[in-house]
Structure formats: C-alpha cells, structure tokens
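Researcher: Please generate the 3D structure of the following complex. Treat every line as part of one assembly.
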Amino acid sequence: MRIGAVALALVVLAAASPPRPVRAQFSTDARSVGMGGVSLTRDGNLRRFNPAYRAVKNRADAGGGAKVTIPVPLGLIQFFKDHPINQFDTDPLFHPDSARFNPIEAMNLILNPPIFYEVRKAPAPTNDVEFTIGRNLFVIDLGAAQVVIPEDEFGLGSTSRLLDMTPLNVAGFHVGVMGFMHYEVGFTLDSTLRAVLKDADSVQANDTLVVISDGVVQAGLAPTVGYAGRVWHADGESQDGIYLGAAVRYYMGGAFARGRGPGGFSTGNPVFGTAPTPLLDDTLVTSNKPYGRGVGGDVGVVWVSGPLEVGVGVNDIGAELTWTDTKVQRVYFDAATDTIRRTILQNHVENTTKLPITYIANAAIRMGTGTTVGGDIVNSGRGTVIHVGAEQRVGVLALRGGVSRDRRKKVQLGWGGGLRLGPVGLDVGFWTHSNSFADKRGITMATSLSLY
Amino acid sequence: MKARVPALMLVAALLAVACGEGRAIFNVDVLSFIQPSGRDTVRYNVPAPVATTADSFIPPQRVILPPGFGKSSVDSVQLTAAAVIENTTGTGSILFEVFFAKTAASVYSATPYISASGTITGPQPSTVQLLPPTAVSLSDSVFNTDTVWVGVHARISTNAGPNVAGRVRLTTLLLRVVLQDKFF
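Model: Done. Output below.
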C-alpha cells in the first residue's frame, strides 16, 4: 500500500510543481550546454519545427566542424559511487518501503538524469511535516515542502509527431503521413485549498476544497503534401539563399476525450466528527467514432547569407478538428447513493478540438574572428523557451556563455570552455537548471569529447 | 469522540511521506473533541462526616487517529494537560490523572500518562489550578494504533467535616505524537 501511496504522492508532486526538462539539460554536447542551450547544428528542434530546414544541409563547420561528439558521463561515475550496483538491493533510493526513501529525490533523479556531474544538487526537502488537529481545526504545515505547491495552473502536456514518413520525394515536393498525439492536462487548486497547503491556513467547517481539472487528449493520422527547397540563391556553390518549406495536412482524428470540472470535498461542521462530502461534477466529452477531420499546415523560411542564418517555422496552423459524432456526459458524485454516476447530456453531437500552434525562431552568426552568436525561441505548445549564447575561439581555446528562459519562466545561465588539440577537443559546460522539486537551482557540469 | 479523517489529511500525509527522513508530527487538541459532550468534567460529591476517599471517572472516550498510525513507528508522545478544581463545599485534596490505552476496558488499569494533585483549603468555594508537568513517552506502544481510548480520573480525599462537592474541569489536553516515516 505504501508503494501505491508513494506513487500517488509522486503524481501529486509531479503535478504540483511542473519542472520541465530544458533541452540543453539533456544535450550530450558540452558546447551547447556552455552556450545556454543554443544548438550548433541544424537538426533537432530546427528540423522538427521549421519545414524549410528539410532543404538546408548541415554546415561543414557546424559545431566547430566536429565529426563526432561523445559525452563524458562523469555524473554516472558519481552516481554509481553514491549508489553502488551491488547495493541496489538495499539502497533506499530504489526501495519505497524504506523509511529513508525520499520520493522527491527519486523524482528529481528522473527529471534530472545523472549523465553529467551535478556540481550543486538542488536540495530535496527532508523537513518535518506538522498537522494540528482539533474538533474544528485542521492545519497542515508542510514546512519547506510548501515549495512544491503550485500557485497557478499546473499540468502536463505535449504535442508529439509519433510518425513522420515521407516516402515520396520529388524535386523538393514530398508526400507522406504524420501520426500525431496531443494531450494536455491542467489542474488549478482553488484558493482555499491552496491556502491550506501553501500557507498552512486552517481548514474551517463547511469549507469547500477542490481542484479544478481540465484535460484533453486526441490522436490520429495526417496525410501530408509538402515542399521544401531553396527558392532563391546568390550562386550555385554556397548554401546562401532563401529556403521555403510548407506542408498541408489533412488531419484524421482517431479518438479524443475532454474533461473539465471540479473535484474535491467539503468539510462538515465540525471539521472532525462529521464525514466530509465528496464533490465531483465534471463534463466529459468523448468521440463515439473516429470521425475527427480538419485541415492545417506548417510553414517555414530560412535565410542563409554567408555567416548569417535566420529562420522561422510555425506548425499546425489552423489545425482544428471537427468531430461529428461525440457524446457529452456529466460525471458527478451522487451523495444519496454514495457513488459516482454518469448521465448522458447529449449524444451524437458535433464538437471541435484544436492542436496547439508550435513555432521556432532562430538566428545565428558565425564571424570570421572565431565568434559565433546564436539564439532561438521555441514554443512546443507548453510555453516558450528562449536560448541565447555565444562562443569565442582563441587558438586552441574556446570560451562560451549563454542565458536562457525555461518553461517555468526562470532564467538559467550557461558557461564553459573547450580545448582543441589537433583532431581531439575536450569541452566543459556548466548549466543552471530548475529540473527538480526545489526552489533553488542546481548546477550541472557537462563534459564531452569531440573528434574533428 | 469520532474524528473522521478527511481526504485532505491523506493528501497531506502523502506529502509528508514525500519529505524523506522528515517526521510527521501530529498535534491533537483532545480537549476540543471531548468538551462538547461534557466529558471534560469529573463531578464529585463525597459525604465526609469523617475523612474518606472516593474516586470519580469519566467513561472512556474513543479517539480515532489518522489511518496509518497502526503501521507507524511512534518516536515520541508528549502530553500536556491542565485542569482546574472548582470546589463548592468541604476541604480535602484531589488527585487528577489522565489515561490512554488501546482498549476501553484497559484504560483505567494502565499507568496514567499524567497526574497532578491539589489541596482544597480555605473558605469555599475555592478554585485550584492543577498543572501537571508535561509527560513525554518515548518509543510509545499505545499510540501505534488507529484508535486509542482516553480516560480521566479524580480521586477525592476529604477532611472530616462537611461534604466535599464540586468538579474537576480539564482546561488543556494536548497530544503531540511524532511518527517516524512509515505512515503508509
């Protein structure tokens, strides 16, 4: 039972404070880490969010011209030193039954894999939690753990392209199919519940304590016709020019579900001594048949002019799906029968859903003086991430620095350097992050070897 | 006393579990639960032409603790109590005791967690404060359960003279239970 409870706690906590991985945190390239997450190559986010990049080849000098970059996972060495493999059987980190098991520490490990060395670990709260109970009094003082209680809406969400096949490519035109999945779940603590958990306010008699939830999930396929190519170029040899990319998709929704409403309970009078009354009154909309249809598309442009490169890409423009056969139900708690009941409000009715618009804007300039400056703004449907960074090469040395704003709107810093000796380069990058359940930032040191 | 535990406590307890080696501390105002039923008062009326002794008890009161106490390792239990003697006639002395036990039947056969005594003297009516020292029970074996029973006992010793009558009224009864993390 404890394992289940801890699992539930993890879900609550994961939802309660939504640290989202910053891309640079999981970059295996210490140079990118040192530049605040700016990508030195034309793959990853650029190709995902800007269809014009399908037509742009990687630069020969991209990433300093490295052929291969190999991460040096110093974090794993530290991790296995702290948690020897032969002691996994008794290590509290892996045993929720242990009194020393700390779910927050375990969750931090998942959110922040120990590939690289953690110079400063974000502290996992290990404070006492105090409950004050009286007949008409209930105070929960979570102490330092109050930081995990969110002030605003929190949740999880993603727009994924599970499949993106373009088997037919002719003269820049391509025909294929894309599989998409979009889910988004948001929760908001009502003001009373938030004050109880975050400010240690007392629960009062006849209080209503609820979480407002709002979630949607939809998935399907989208046959696609697109084009990506250079529409203008100064000469035939360089990559200079303007690249355009566009794709038109016919979205064929397979299934969708959307629910919203409050869930919680109201206290009796007195708080203890009378049973609380569960509160649940949600509206659930589901598709009866896979009849979601809609048209949308992606557009992107890239301009390359010598050392300068600028690009903008937008995805899923106008992607609104119309579901012709859906069912609207009310899901509520029936106090008379002490059960959760469903009633159909409407059946075989039409509903619409939207895929969130995602975009990227990027710019980079590579100067002949050994200076590279770049930046990007990415919104993958769950908030905007900004990266800006620079690299200065001086002989065999490289100095790097950068700054970013993560999805939690927290400013993070990156800095580092590198040493290149002939065909081998060693790079070190430091990166502050908030990928943990703590109000303090952690600092990661990434290390990688590059072969030129 | 039947104190149901709202779901919020379970959520909060989950968060408590999430705090690693941190402890879960429960401050329970026991008096607030038994006061409305009048069980916070032990009345006495002892005929005392000669010196004698009499006992008064409240019926054992049930205290339902949050689920999980039964699986928990109780680090310590601290009990703070205070009472007042409101005597109307007679003189003598009063011994005041508070008991906790796992079953109703064994409440008054156990060792009291807390006790104090007071002397009733002077012109009547008189009021005497009973302030027993705070009791601390380490590695307690009574509170590692979801339900405990509480009892209050007053022993009245009279002096020769008029009847001794009045009441002993609890004014404070606070429990502080510290659990090591095995709440679930």
